[in-house]
Specification:
Number of helices: 7
Shape: elongated
Number of strands: 0
Number of domains: 1
Radius of gyration: 16 Å
CATH superfamily: Homeodomain-like
CATH topology: Arc Repressor Mutant, subunit A
């Protein structure tokens, strides 16, 4: 894998709380956004933007499972900008809203402890 793509992935993982954008990552790597996007897509099969969204959604799932933070607080915590946009992306990725995800997780956890 191209070292710049590895570095981009590390930057995203290390800064999962930040409102990181593709132009920030490209600037850190010293390459243009378009070059980074092409490299990232060629090496990973997905776009950097999609990868950023996936990391945010994965982190949001953990926070929904492990904390009592509100969805709005979680959106801020994962570095997403707009709450309604993030909820739409979350629903698309997980098949349900963040609130419903938490309810389902807690229900399944409770059922598992009673078995």
């Amino acid at each position: 894998m191209d070292h710049r793509v590895k570095e981009a992935i590390e930057l995203v993982q290390m800064n999962s709380k930040a409102k990181l954008r593709a132009d920030h990552v490209a600037r850190e790597l010293g390459i243009s956004v378009s070059r980074l996007q092409h490299l990232f897509k060629d090496e990973t099969g997905t776009t950097l933007i999609r990868y950023l969204q996936d990391v945010r959604i994965e982190r949001a799932c953990k926070l929904l499972e492990e904390t009592h933070l509100s969805v709005k607080q979680i959106v801020s915590e994962v570095g997403a900008g707009d709450t309604s946009h993030f909820i739409r992306d979350f629903r698309k990725a997980q098949g349900l809203s963040p609130q419903r995800y938490r309810v389902n997780f807690l229900s399944n956890k409770k059922a598992a402890t009673h078995d």
